[in-house]
TrEMBL record:
<dbReference type="GO" id="GO:0017057">
    <property type="term" value="F:6-phosphogluconolactonase activity"/>
</dbReference>
<dbReference type="Pfam" id="PF10282">
    <property type="entry name" value="Lactonase"/>
</dbReference>
<dbReference type="InterPro" id="IPR015943">
    <property type="entry name" value="WD40/YVTN_repeat-like_dom_sf"/>
</dbReference>
<dbReference type="InterPro" id="IPR050282">
    <property type="entry name" value="Cycloisomerase_2"/>
</dbReference>
<comment type="similarity">
    <text>Belongs to the cycloisomerase 2 family.</text>
</comment>
<dbReference type="InterPro" id="IPR019405">
    <property type="entry name" value="Lactonase_7-beta_prop"/>
</dbReference>
<feature type="signal peptide">
    <location>
        <begin position="1"/>
        <end position="19"/>
    </location>
</feature>
<dbReference type="InterPro" id="IPR011048">
    <property type="entry name" value="Haem_d1_sf"/>
</dbReference>
<keyword id="KW-0732">Signal</keyword>
<dbReference type="GO" id="GO:0016853">
    <property type="term" value="F:isomerase activity"/>
</dbReference>
<keyword id="KW-0413">Isomerase</keyword>
<protein>
    <submittedName>
        <fullName>Putative isomerase YbhE</fullName>
    </submittedName>
</protein>
Length: 389
């Protein structure tokens, strides 16, 4: 063994032996903070703040990581312009601003194309979708937009007075982008194959008053998707669509609907619960949805996360509701090894980290750690495949 390879091996061992994981927490109050979570420290695990940025003020309510770039929205109201900012994840997890670009007001979600050259944002307040050309180093140039109107309000007029695109999601093959539009009761579909322009296709209709917010393709991984799970914020239910992708088109057929409370009764409020995030486990065998405003947990003081098992034909079976560790769980994410779930509780402002058991999909009912943050709208794990030192 040469000295160089011994040194390289030692360095790799030093970095991979570290038990610390990174979590980025974006808040509705202006900051994106970098935290370290060390599951082995203090017997109980330890969370430590590493860095903070306010460059995505007023409201960095969503972040997406691609390689060592972190993209964040600055959510605004109308008529302010929306901003998408790219940061390089630097040493000690400091976010270094590299570029930004303006788009439709009120961006709330970002998708990145497979090669990293295409960035798409969905804007709730302004009712539109933007596309940006990305140079792969954080440079962003606005290239295209779609803005929508409604002829008449939807079934829930105070929330569906206009179109409200709520998320942008790339399909695993990188050919399609979908955008659930909460106000228009449809999932908008685009072909993004050309990677310089996106082309709108026929959208997928959801029932009146469903309020599609977020969605996830099934199965996980890079295979052609066979199904799509869409969560309806206004109906607190999940629709399963069977999908087929061929000839540049994505077609969907509704095959099942299940409550985000499973077999338990849906709290009637007021205020009524409003479902938020939906995600599959890394092995694709379990589906999770967060319920905001339900207060069904911890003696009526916390909201819930619903767990479903997913059969190979995408059939969902309700398993349990567990506490979210606070109020209004707007977002959550699961580590790649499936062992931890970080939940951003927007209402109580804290984020909570729970142990998850990959062998049976259950989430612990007590958090390992709960940390007060200045609002917690989005919590994403950063787990680089290779550490460069
Ligand atoms: C859409 O893009 C065009 C061209 O860049 C721009 O002039 C227009 O203001 C944009 N619309 C919105 C609503 O952002
Ligand atoms: C899931 O697995 C964990 C760890 O093995 C165990 O403690 C827990 O009781 C299991 N839960 C169910 C519902 O089987």
């Amino acid at each position: 063994m040469s000295l160089r390879s011994i040194l390289t091996t030692t360095l790799l061992m030093a970095t991979t032996a570290s038990a610390a994981r990174t979590l980025f927490v974006g808040s509705g109050k202006g900051t994106i903070k970098s935290y370290e979570f060390d599951e082995t420290a203090n017997a109980q695990g330890l969370v430590k703040e590493l860095a903070s940025t306010s460059e995505s003020s007023p409201a960095p309510t969503w972040q997406t990581i691609f390689g060592d770039l972190l993209y964040s929205v600055s959510e605004s109201g109308v008529p302010a312009e929306g901003v998408v900012t790219a940061y390089q994840i630097g040493s000690n997890r400091k976010l270094i601003k590299k570029g930004s670009a303006k788009g439709v007001a009120g961006p709330v979600s970002i998708a990145v194309g497979k090669d990293g050259k295409l960035v798409i944002s969905a804007s709730y307040a302004g009712g539109g979708v933007d596309m940006f050309a990305a140079d792969g180093y954080g440079g962003l140039t606005h290239s295209q937009n779609f803005t929508y109107t409604l002829n008449k309000p939807g079934r829930v007029p105070d929330r569906q007075e206009g179109p409200h695109p709520h998320q942008a999601i790339m399909d695993p093959t990188g050919e399609y982008v979908i955008v659930p539009d909460l106000g228009a009761d449809r999932v908008r579909v685009y072909n993004a194959k050309s990677s310089t322009t996106i082309k709108e296709l026929e959208s997928i209709k959801t029932p009146d008053g469903f309020g599609p917010r977020h969605a996830v393709f099934y199965p996980v991984g890079n295979a052609k998707p066979t199904h799509l799970f869409v969560v309806g914020e206004l109906s607190n239910s999940i629709i399963t669509f069977k999908i087929s992708c061929a000839g540049g088109q994505l077609k969907a057929k509704e095959i099942a609907t299940i409550s985000t409370f499973g077999t338990q009764s849906v709290p009637t409020g007021p205020p009524a619960p409003i479902a938020a995030e939906i995600a599959l486990s890394p092995d694709g065998k379990y589906l999770y949805v967060s319920n905001r405003g339900d207060k069904t947990q911890a003696g009526g003081t916390q909201d819930s996360i619903a767990t479903f098992s997913v059969a190979s034909d995408a059939k969902l079976a309700f398993m349990q509701l567990t506490p979210s560790g606070g109020l209004s769980p707007r977002h959550f994410s699961i580590t790649r090894d499936g062992n931890w779930v970080a939940i951003a509780n927007d209402g109580s402002g804290n984020f909570a980290i729970f142990r998850r058991y990959p062998e049976n999909g259950t989430i612990s009912s007590l958090p390992t750690i709960s940390t007060v943050n200045d609002g917690s709208a989005c919590a994403i794990w950063y787990e680089p495949k290779v550490e460069y030192s």
